[in-house]
From TrEMBL:
Its EC number is 3.2.1.1. Belongs to the glycosyl hydrolase 13 family. This is Alpha-amylase. CDD domains: AmyAc_bac_euk_AmyA (cd11317). Residues 33-384 form the Glycosyl hydrolase family 13 catalytic domain. Its cofactor is Ca(2+). GO terms for molecular function: alpha-amylase activity; metal ion binding. Gene3D superfamilies: Glycosidases (3.20.20.80), Golgi alpha-mannosidase II (2.60.40.1180). The keyword Cytoplasm does not apply.
Length: 479
C-alpha cells in the first residue's frame, strides 16, 4: 500500500495499564490570528518569515512539520511522508538541527507568532523503511528496535495492517501500512513521549497538532499530553489540537476532552460550496458540523487532503483564496491554513539538495506555493484578528453564489462566486468612516493601496463586487 497514506491516520491503542489523565482544554482559540501550517519549511526559513511577514500581517501561530529524527528514503526520492516515520526524538531532521529549531522558536515568539509542532506519537518507522538507515540524525535502528528508546515489548502485538476499519480495537492496535505501532498504554512509552514533548515546550513551543489520533484511545492521548508542562514564561497550558478523521466507528467528540479536534466535515462543505457557487447554503454552517465552534479546528485543505482528496487547493487560484477568506471571516472554529510547496506527484518531497536536505524556502521561488502571501489570504489574516469574539450579523445572500455578512461592529465581508457583478447597498453594523478593502489592498502609511469604501452613520454602504472576487472591511483598516 502506498505510504502516502501515512498522515491520513496513524494508529494505536489498548487497555490502559497506568493511571490516565485528561489534558486541560483551552476555553477559546489560543491566538488572535490564524494558524498557518508551513508545510516542510526549514527552520531558518520559518524564522525569517515570522519576522518579515507572518507577525506583521497578524498570523497567530505556525504549525511546523515534525522536528524529530526520521527515516531517510533516498531510494524513493525523499518523499514528504518520510518525516512521519520517527526513529528517535533528537531534533535532527531534513529541515535543520536542534540549534536552528530553538532559534526559530525564539525568533517567531519575538515576532508574536507561536510555534505548534506536528507531533507524531502513535508510531515509529514502517516496513517500507527497512534497510534505509541511518536516520536523518545518524541513528541506527530496526523496526521494533530503536536503541536506547524502544524495544520490541514497547509495540503492540498485532503486527499486521489494519484490515477492518469498523473494528475499533483493530484500528487502535494493528498497523497502518506497516508502521511500528507504539503501545501508548504503557508507562515507558508514555513517559518517553511526554519527555520529548516537554523538551519542545521547554524551548518555547506553545502547542501541538497531534497526528493520527483516531488510532489511539482517548485516555492514552490524555495521559501523554496531560502530563506536559506549562509553557515557560506564560504559564499557559500548551494548546493541543488532534487530527481525527471521523467515521462510523470513531467520532471527533470522543477526543474533545483532550483539546480541540480537527473538523474534517468542514472542508468538504465549505470548499464544495465555494467551488460550485452555492454559498447561500453556508448561512447555518455550524448546524452541519459535528463539533461546537470552540472545540473545532477547520481548514480548506491540509497536506493530506491536497494529495488524497482535493476539492480546492493552491492550484485553483482565486476560487481557493475566496474559500480561505470565508474560513477566516465566518465565526466557526479555529482556522488552520497551509503554505507548502508546489507538486504534481502527490508523493514528492519539498525542494531538496542532492542528499535530501530541504532547500531554503522563499516566496520568490515558484517551487514554494506560499499560499499565506497571496493578497486576499494575507489581508484576511488581519480581518480574522480584528473580529475575534464577535457574532455573525447582517447576513445577506441571493440564494446562490453571492453572500455578505458582518462580524458585530468589527467587520464585514462580501463574496461573489457568480459570473455577474454584485452591486448592492449593504447593511453593516460598522461605525461610520472610510475603510480599506483588505481583499484588494492594505492600509499602509495612512493610505489604502486598494479600494476604499464609505460607511454611513447608519452602517450602510454601496459597493460593487466583481465576479469571482470579494470585499472585506474591518476596524483595523479604517482610515
Amino acid at each position: 500500500m502506498r505510504l502516502a497514506l501515512l498522515a491520513l491516520a496513524a494508529s494505536v491503542g489498548g487497555a490502559a495499564l497506568v493511571p490516565t489523565a485528561t489534558a486541560e482544554v483551552p476555553t477559546a482559540a489560543p491566538v488572535r490570528g490564524p494558524i498557518v501550517q508551513m508545510f516542510q519549511w526549514p527552520w531558518e526559513s520559518v524564522a525569517r518569515e515570522c519576522t518579515d511577514f507572518l507577525g506583521p500581517k497578524g498570523f497567530g501561530a505556525v504549525q511546523v512539520s515534525p522536528p524529530q529524527e526520521h527515516v531517510v528514503l533516498g531510494d524513493q526520492g525523499y518523499p514528504w511522508y518520510q518525516d512521519y516515520q520517527p526513529v528517535s526524538y533528537q531534533l535532527e531532521s531534513r529541515r535543520g538541527n536542534r540549534e536552528q529549531f530553538a532559534a526559530m522558536v525564539r525568533t517567531c515568539n519575538d515576532a508574536g507568532v507561536e510555534i505548534y509542532v506536528d507531533a507524531v506519537v502513535n508510531h515509529m518507522s514502517g516496513s517500507g523503511s527497512v534497510g534505509s538507515g541511518p536516520g536523518s540524525g545518524g541513528s541506527t535502528y530496526e523496526k521494533y528496535d530503536y536503541p536506547g528508546i524502544y524495544a520490541d515489548a514497547d509495540f503492540h502485538g498485532c503486527r499486521r495492517d489494519i484490515a477492518n476499519y469498523q473494528d475499533k480495537w483493530e484500528v487502535r492496535n494493528c498497523e497502518l501500512v506497516g508502521l511500528a505501532d507504539l503501545a501508548t498504554e504503557s508507562e515507558h512509552v508514555r513517559t518517553t513521549l511526554t519527555a520529548y514533548l516537554n523538551d519542545l515546550v521547554g524551548m518555547g513551543v506553545s502547542g501541538f497538532r497531534v497526528d493520527g489520533v483516531k488510532h489511539m484511545p482517548p485516555e492514552d492521548v490524555g495521559a501523554i499530553f496531560g502530563a506536559v508542562q506549562n509553557v515557560p514564561g506564560t504559564g499557559a497550558r500548551p494548546y493541543v489540537f488532534q487530527e481525527v478523521i471521523a467515521d462510523g466507528t470513531t467520532t471527533a467528540g470522543e477526543y474533545a476532552g483532550n483539546g480541540d479536534v480537527t473538523e474534517f466535515g468542514y472542508y468538504g462543505v465549505v470548499a464544495n460550496a465555494v467551488r460550485d457557487g452555492s454559498l447561500a447554503q453556508l448561512a447555518n454552517l455550524p448546524e452541519r458540523m459535528s463539533l461546537p465552534s470552540d472545540q473545532a479546528v477547520v481548514f480548506i485543505d491540509n497536506h493530506d487532503t491536497q494529495r488524497s482528496s482535493p476539492i480546492l487547493t493552491y492550484k485553483d487560484g482565486v476560487t481557493y483564496d475566496l474559500a480561505v477568506a470565508f474560513e477566516l471571516a465566518y465565526p466557526y472554529g479555529t482556522p488552520q491554513l497551509i503554505s507548502g510547496f508546489a507538486f504534481d506527484d502527490p508523493d514528492a518531497g519539498p525542494p531538496a539538495e542532492a542528499d535530501g536536505t530541504t532547500q531554503a524556502a522563499s516566496c520568490d521561488n515558484s517551487a514554494w506555493s506560499c499560499e499565506h502571501r497571496r493578497p486576499i489570504i494575507a489581508g484576511m489574516a488581519g480581518f480574522h484578528g480584528a473580529v475575534q469574539g464577535t457574532e455573525l450579523t447582517n447576513w445577506w445572500d441571493n440564494g446562490g453564489g453571492q453572500v455578505a455578512f458582518g462580524r458585530g461592529d468589527k467587520g464585514f465581508v462580501a463574496i461573489n462566486r457568480e459570473g455577474g457583478e454584485l452591486s448592492q447597498t449593504f447593511q453593516s453594523s460598522l461605525p461610520a468612516g472610510t475603510y480599506c478593502d483588505v481583499m484588494s489592498g492594505e492600509l499602509k502609511d495612512g493610505a489604502c493601496t486598494g479600494t476604499t469604501v464609505e460607511v454611513g452613520a447608519d452602517g450602510r454602504f454601496d459597493a460593487t463586487v466583481a465576479p469571482n472576487s470579494g470585499l472585506a472591511l474591518h476596524i483595523g483598516a479604517k482610515l
